[in-house]
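We modelled the chain as a single entity of 71 amino acids. Its sequence is:
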Amino acid sequence: RRWWGENQVFCVFNFSHNLVSYSPNLCGKTWEKRLDSTEKKWGGLGGNSPEMLTKSLSLTLLPESLVLYET
């Protein structure tokens, strides 16, 4: 997770060949997806990450992928 002033981003990578679930500590903020490497526009099969993340959601990352969120 990185920040500058009021803006924050976090990126989660899955380097494995398996699905990985992750429950980030979101500090009560709502996060908007900026990049999902599995989306078709990046040559993937279609993204599965939610467009918005809140404190109650977890991520399931597809194999060999990354997802980036911003507040």
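As a brief sanity check on the tokenised model: The first strand starts at residue 2 and ends at 4. Residues 9 and 70 are 4 Å apart (CA to CA).
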